[in-house]
Amino acid sequence: MEIDQQLNNEEIQEVRIIxxxxxxxxxxxxxxxxxxxxxxxxxPNTVKVIANGAFGNCYALYSIQMTENLTTxxxxxxxxxxxxxxxxIPDSVTxxxxxxxxxxx
Length: 105
Description:
By secondary structure, this protein is of the alpha/beta class. Helix content is 10%, strand content 26%. The protein has a single domain (3-96), classed as Leucine-rich repeat, LRR (right-handed beta-alpha superhelix). The protein starts with a helix and ends in a 9-residue tail after the last strand.
């Protein structure tokens, strides 16, 4: 699945669903960004792709719970999440783009 194509898709950019700080594509399969400030986040079961930079600079994020439907973690998806300490990547993930966890401690 090509993340750049999805991010450039006008339909995904125009139609967004915001749910618990998560900005999702209309079909809820792409997590476009996270606008919350809670220390923990749980992805909906429908999310298959975490888009490029989706959680970038989320300094408060400490843990994230992913589901078995997730297949792709985009470029820089968690960059500068300096407090991220708890993450389990499910076996369903087949692609982790470069810098996905850049400057995470």
